[in-house]
From TrEMBL:
Coiled coil: none annotated. The lineage of its organism: Bacteria, Bacillati, Bacillota, Bacilli, Bacillales. Residues 236-552 form the Abortive phage infection protein C-terminal domain. This is AIPR protein. Residues 29-175 form the Abortive infection phage resistance protein N-terminal domain.
Length: 591
């Protein structure tokens, strides 16, 4: 997929959402951008907000609080619907980041006292004023723009101490998505392709038909050469790539290679790899030493930054002649077991940099199964005389849909694919978790953000041994239709903030009142909910708003209050009053 194609597809995605939303393009763009960044582990648990005062030059579009790292991330968007994908000047980049920095500085001084409690950014301003120096001590700024920052120069928007910032233009997002999308199965013949050989020792195993495991070492030069040829496709299942020696760990790798190369094998943890199949010969009649001739589907599932750092060292002409890396190779003997074993290797292997849970779980068997089901499940046609023409497209990896669209070989095939898989029916894994867990009556978990909720979703699926079949997929889609209808209703109520919390708590309360028994078969067949349910959602949403904005301790930060189990438990106590208003008849289909 070329950059221009990606820009056009991304623009269409925004415009499609505008048609089905009461929000403006900039806020929809902001949400799309941070969803991509969250799904690729760049940030997490982002809360959308909006604060702007033109007179004093301040602005913010979203924020994320990481209590573990004691870090607050503030997002500001520079969106141009007319000059989409055009160049943005360094001056305008500095101006945009200056606005969000000023927002933080103004909030630290107590801006919250001048805001109405109904202001969209009241909760953020309160958080900054009350928690800076306590819950968080570091601040990072993200500029999100649909333009191209061609200058790509370091900026200094504020005089004084340097600030921690990232600039994400549309091209950088395009690069990120391309890095995380595999293009083809890798087939490597070490001697033929690289004039080298790989010799490893087989780990003895008893009655193990799922995989064979080999351990040993690989020359750093060979690994760098392989990475040079295959690039990010080599670490697709590692999900994250590490292209520059930035963090302390990466710089440590580089410095060891440069100054103490003989110590590298002692200092580095090595790499974990998997392969779909292998051509392997024993070196001796007895013993367990083998020569790895070729590998198919070779992937580095742990050790991405080691690999990329070694490649960068090679480019910098650092001598790798006497450098070796520990390697573990797991050859999966059963195609059915490939994703499940790979997922666990990715998750359980030691990681040197943090990887998001949704990244680690991208190859979880349940998600793979949902993806497979979505590709063969047709949406019911409302016209009984016509066959089904559309599907819901489950996007296991963020950006998967755009990649699939642009993989079509001709304009006609692309149109046919989009007709069969419309953008309005793309379902991401974090959305799936949100819909499912809201109906499972844990809105306080959903309120903790997409990453935290996704982790609990996968844990729930595994612990409860939930069957991933066609009925579950249709149920998830139907829960999503209900959830999104509730979202529209809450938008129409025009509350000044906390929409995500109101929607999740409202759906959870409907589930609680109906004891999880609801006619989702009807929702699936109609791809909609009826007016009676809409009215009930509206009534519950009004109760929800009153509840979450009236915490037991006056002045409590509402966003943080919604994340507490106490918020949900006290809301359930009020269900008797709500039930009297809405329960006239119950849907009695299977859950």
């Amino acid at each position: 997929m070329k950059l221009e194609e990606f820009i056009n597809s991304f623009k269409e995605e925004i415009e499609n959402d505008v048609e089905n939303s009461l929000e403006n393009r900039e806020q929809i763009f902001t949400e799309k951008m941070y969803e991509y960044l969250s799904d690729n582990g760049i940030t997490e648990n982002v809360e959308k907000t909006f604060g702007k005062k033109h007179a004093i030059g301040i602005k913010v579009n979203a924020y994320s609080l990481n209590e573990e790292k004691e870090k607050l991330t503030l997002f500001v968007s520079e969106y141009d619907s007319v000059r989409y994908g055009k160049s943005i000047s360094q001056k305008n980049v500095e101006k945009a980041i200056r606005r969000v920095v000023r927002y933080f500085n103004t909030a630290v001084k107590g801006m919250v006292s001048s805001l109405e409690e109904t202001a969209p950014d009241y909760s953020l301003a309160q958080l900054i004023y009350e928690e800076y120096g306590k819950t968080f001590k570091h601040v990072e700024y993200f500029l999100l723009t649909n333009s191209l920052y061609k200058a790509n120069e370091t900026i200094n928007p504020i005089k004084g101490a340097p600030i921690n910032y990232q600039i994400w233009d549309i091209e950088r997002l395009y690069q990120l998505i391309n890095e995380t999308q595999g293009l083809e199965t890798i087939e490597i013949d070490f001697e033929k392709n690289f004039n080298n050989k790989l010799q490893l020792m087989k780990v003895p195993s008893t009655n193990n038909s799922l995989f064979d495991c080999y351990i040993g070492y690989i020359p750093a030069k060979l690994l760098a050469d392989v990475y040079s040829k295959w690039g990010q496709r080599l670490i697709e299942r590692n999900v994250r790539s590490f292209l520059q020696a930035r963090g302390k760990v990466n710089k440590g790798i580089r410095n060891t290679l440069k100054d103490q190369s003989e110590m590298f094998v002692a200092y580095n943890n090595g790499i974990s790899t998997i392969a779909e199949s292998a051509d392997i010969n024993p070196l001796f009649e007895e013993g367990n030493l083998y020569e790895i001739i070729s590998l198919k589907g070779w992937q580095i599932v742990n050790g991405g930054q080691t690999t990329a750092s070694i490649y960068n060292a090679l480019k910098e002409k650092i001598d790798l002649k006497d450098v070796y890396i520990q390697i573990k190779l797991t050859v999966i003997n059963s195609e059915k077991s490939l994703d499940g074993i790979t997922s666990r290797i990715s998750e359980y292997a030691n990681t040197q940099n943090r990887i998001s849970m949704s990244d680690l779980k991208a190859n979880h068997p349940s998600l793979v199964q949902l993806e497979n089901i979505s590709r063969t499940t047709w949406v019911p046609s409302l016209d009984k005389g016509k066959k089904s023409e559309e599907k819901w497209f489950f996007e296991r990896a963020r950006g998967q849909y755009l990649v699939e669209v642009n993989r079509q070989s001709s304009p006609a095939q692309k149109r046919a694919f989009q007709k069969q898989n419309p953008k309005s029916k793309v379902l991401t894994k974090t959305q799936t978790a949100k819909y499912y867990m809201s109906w499972e009556q844990v809105p306080h978990v959903v309120s903790k953000g997409s990453e935290a909720n996704f982790e609990k979703f996968i844990e729930y699926i595994d612990t409860e041994k939930i069957d991933i079949d066609s009925n579950l997929f249709k149920g998830v889609v139907s829960k999503g239709i209900l959830f999104n209808e509730c979202d529209k209703i809450v938008k129409e109520l025009d509350y000044p903030g906390y929409k995500a919390n109101v929607v999740s708590y409202t759906v959870a309360m409907l589930s609680y009142i109906y004891e999880k028994k609801f006619d989702f078969d009807k929702v699936w067949k109609l791809q909609n909910v009826d007016n009676d349910i809409r009215e009930k959602l509206k009534i519950i949403a009004q109760h929800t708003w009153k509840h979450i904005t009236s915490p037991p301790v006056a002045g409590t930060n509402i966003t943080q209050w919604c994340k507490k189990g106490e918020c949900w438990e006290t809301y359930k106590e009020k269900s008797i009053d709500i039930r009297k208003q809405i329960v006239k008849e119950k849907y009695t289909s299977s859950p």
